[in-house]
Amino acid sequence: MKTSIYILFFAFVFLSCSTNENNIPSQSFEITYNKSKNYTSTDFSGNESCGYLYASAIIENKFKLLFELTDKGNIKNIILLDYTNQKTFRTAYYNPRQHFIISNFVFEKEKNYLSFMFEGDLLNQNDNGESIFIKGKVESENFKTSGCNQTFSEFSATVNSEGFRHTNSFFSYNLDSDSYQATFTSDKGFWIKFIASKHIKEIPVGTYHFDDNSASKFNFLEYKGNPTVNNYFFKEKWFTYKCNGSFTITEHQDDLTIGTFNFQTTNYNTNQQVFSIDNGNFLITH
Prior knowledge:
By secondary structure, the chain is mainly β. It has two domains: 2-145, no CATH class; 154-285. It has strands at residues 2-6, 29-33, 37-41, 44-49, 52-59, 63-70, 75-82, 87-90, 100-108, 113-124, 131-140, 144-145, 154-159, 162-163, 166-174, 179-186, 190-196, 206-210, 217-223, 238-252, 256-266, 273-285. The strands form three sheets. Strands 1, 4, 5, 6, 7, 8, 9, 10, 11 and 12 form a ten-stranded mixed beta sheet that branches. Strands 13, 14, 15, 16, 17, 18, 19, 20, 21 and 22 form a ten-stranded antiparallel beta sheet that branches. A two-stranded antiparallel sheet has the order 2-3. A hairpin with a 4-residue loop joins strand 7 and strand 8 (87-90). The chain is globular. The termini are far apart.
């Protein structure tokens, strides 16, 4: 079952004395619900912290809309709380960009400016097949920035010439087996995994060629299941590709490793090349 909610969401800062005599920044947004009812509110807040954007708006105590994006506009999570019907809707967990689009994204940190358009389906968090459609625009000239005193892992690549829209990173190291794994996820349902027989900080600087039989290698997975809000990992819903290519460890520092990579993926069943992963760069903290 699908319901439509059309949202026009604005947050403006007016700096002229004619708009605000005390020169105090003000914000507002407008919302059109089901194409017929309009809402206005000034209850908007948001900030950037350590490369992630957090924004929320409350609409007359009927709805609350929350965005969690990267500073490049990649989707981590979008949630709509429907207070009237006591329901919660959110973006699909593994591949939100297959069902929800962030477009015309602009974030200028130095100017405290944020603007983007959004459109797509949100799923009932009970995973019962119910969904809603929302559409709108966000613009703020007073988007705050918090300080960040930590170093976070960084990851970038292209997949068939399209940017790998990185959203999350996961790392694990097993002391007993001396095995290491770093997983990088995108908002389009792609996972890139680096697997090694030793901790990445123990791999000497140099270039390494790999295939499926290598001790240190990259894996590439694509989510093929139905959209879901559950984060359970079901192996049968993921397609794993055969990979071959190379990676280079360019530098080790006390608490991080820097490197590059490139590889191609092949379908195990057809032996045809499917994806080319190029211009890969990583900075992994440890």
